Automatic annotation (TrEMBL):
Protein's name according to its UniProt entry: F-box domain-containing protein
Domain of life, source organism: Eukaryota
Chain ranges of the F-box domain: 22-88
Gene3D superfamilies reported in the protein's UniProt record: 1.20.1280.50, Ribonuclease Inhibitor (3.80.10.10)
Length: 554
């Protein structure tokens, strides 16, 4: 009777549970909901566990708590192989492998949990036919032994994403040994750390490629690397983080003259921490890129004798992503932390130059190498005590390369000297003896608007002088827009002053034309948005991956 009572009670609880709205859903839909509770890393460059990302090891098993909700949920989960298809080097990996049955497998070895179990290696060997993704990070000697095991002796016909990294060594071979019998016909995404060579013909028809932290003695030549790219005409993303054809000119094997690799589908090119700007220019000189390619070049990439133009090849006609630049961000500063190195990026129709560029790297001759004649919008910021600020003459030279400029935006927070120098550079030249005003010599003759952020003490007389004299020369009237937490103290209401705080620049009250000292088009907007100094797509996935692998906090 007690046994019957227990059975009847259990059936009653089951009936009540089946009446819950969520349990009326078909098992397939309930399985899909459960899958959303699982931690899913990107198929290309998954975040490493060694960069202080403790949440990866915590969240990985949280979804298993669903097993404790009720018998119905346990049954649905147990009979859903796809929920058990993510296998990692943890204590319950064998259980996951057993319950996954015929589902495609995603393998993480050393990514979420360190170490390799020989038992797990043996258990995985018969299932290579089901491998869809395979990600493995290990110390050098450990990985060398693993690569020789039976696990890599069988083909992987379903494999689409592969990541293998060997770290913590400098004296082992950088050649990747044969794996999966070379039979990986569906492989699209490849990431290799440390390795500089692999069996010929292994990786073809890739869509995503990442090579990083390669051994210097094994760097490929430009010819070898172009041969490799030629086998993957469908490639969409290339990340080279201290990896690729980086040999010095004396040891490189140059390709035949006029050889170019056309990457018509390339969406993103990420080049980071190369030894010199020259090696970047040499690589780009053999590429043909579409207009839609986003290009990021970052790191401590300039040697002492190199400038900002050194990353460009002599002929940029095939780099079509550079031809439609209409907006330019020029940011000289050393904060936040990731600006301590340089970033040059082309995203859409916008060029970004961000970092602590010394004056020797940003001369007019260097900047003019970039196709900036169609630029209509320019954003400036200069805030650094570690490098010499640009003077009025320097800004005049910089403005000379953007003759079509119509809109100027100055991020003036904590940099009043730079703001005054920029505005002074916009003033027309003085004519002696006095002649009829003309547009000749006026920098940015099409400039229509000037926007300044968080500048409370900009002298009204100074901007009046610049605006009125440009107007007299035939330039459009400047429209001023100020953004700040509060209105500029000396602009509202506009009044004339007997002296100007910028008198040391030689622009005194006696040069203001009578009747033109008031600015008609001036507005104030309360500013609450963060300052934008880099593309919204920055930092890129490749940058985050690189910094995470080296335990840096960015």
């Amino acid at each position: 009777m007690e046994k019957r009572l227990q059975i009847t009670s259990a059936r009653l609880r089951g009936m009540r549970n089946s009446l819950q709205p969520i349990n009326r859903l078909p098992p397939e839909l309930l399985t899909h909901i459960f899958s959303e509770a699982q931690l899913r890393l990107p198929s290309f460059l998954p975040l490493p566990s060694s960069g202080g990302h403790d949440y990866i090891t915590v969240d990985w098993c949280e979804w298993l708590w669903l097993l404790q909700v009720c018998r119905h949920w346990r049954g649905v989960i147990a009979s859903s192989p796809g929920l058990w298809s993510n296998v990692c080097s943890s204590g319950n990996s064998l259980e996951f492998l057993r319950r996954s049955r015929g589902a495609d497998l995603t393998i993480y070895l050393g990514v979420r949990f360190r170490g390799f179990s020989p038992t797990l290696m043996e258990a995985l060997a018969p299932h290579t036919l089901r491998f869809k993704e395979f990600h493995m990070l290990a110390e050098g000697p450990e990985l060398q032994d693993v690569l020789k095991q039976k696990l890599f002796s069988s083909p992987a016909p379903r494999l689409t994403s592969l990541l293998i990294e060997m770290e913590g060594v400098d004296d082992l071979s950088s050649a990747l040994p044969p794996i999966f019998r070379g039979h990986m016909p569906k492989l699209k995404q490849l990431a290799l750390g440390y390795f500089t060579s692999w069996p010929k013909g292994y990786f073809r028809n890739l869509t995503s490629l990442c090579l990083y932290h390669q051994k210097e003695s094994g760097w490929s030549s430009t010819t070898e690397f172009l041969d490799f790219l030629a086998d993957s005409p469908r490639i969409e993303e290339i990340c080279l983080i201290r990896g690729g054809p980086m040999r010095p000119s004396g040891t490189d094997v140059s390709p035949a003259a006029g050889r170019y690799i056309s990457l018509k589908r390339l969406r993103k090119l990420d080049i980071g921490e190369w030894p010199s700007a020259f090696t970047i220019a040499r690589f780009l000189s053999h590429l043909s890129l579409p207009r839609t390619t986003e290009m990021y070049i970052w790191g401590h990439i300039f040697r002492d004798h190199e400038d900002i133009a050194s990353v460009l090849p002599e002929d940029i006609s095939r780099l079509r992503n550079l031809k439609a630049i209409k907006s330019w961000y020029f940011i000289r500063q050393t904060e936040p932390a990731y600006i301590t190195f340089k970033l040059i990026a082309v995203v859409g129709d916008t060029l970004y130059m961000t970092g602590a560029f010394p004056l020797s790297q940003i001369g007019v001759g260097a900047i003019s190498r970039y196709p900036l004649k169609k630029v209509k919008a320019l954003t400036l910021r200069e805030d650094s005590t570690q490098i010499r600020r640009l003077r009025v003459s320097d800004w005049k030279g910089l403005f000379s390369v953007v003759p079509a400029l119509e809109s100027l935006y100055i991020l003036a927070t904590a940099s009043p000297q730079a703001t005054r120098a920029v505005i002074s550079a916009l003033r027309p030249p003085r004519l002696f003896p006095p002649l009829l005003p003309t547009l000749d010599g006026v920098v940015c003759p099409a400039l229509k608007s000037l926007e300044i952020t968080e500048e409370l003490d900009l002298p009204f007389l100074h901007i009046c002088t610049v605006s009125s004299e440009r107007l007299m020369c035939g330039a459009p009237e400047l429209e001023f827009l100020f953004r700040g937490s509060s209105p500029p103290r000396r602009l509202f209401p506009p009044v004339a002053y007997d002296s100007d705080s910028d008198s040391e620049l030689g622009y005194g009250f006696d040069f203001v034309t009578p009747g033109t000292s008031r600015i008609q088009s001036i507005q104030y907007v309360k500013w609450e948005e963060p300052i934008r100094i880099a593309p919204t797509s920055w930092p890129t996935q490749a940058f985050n991956w690189s910094q995470g692998r080296h335990r840096a906090s960015f």
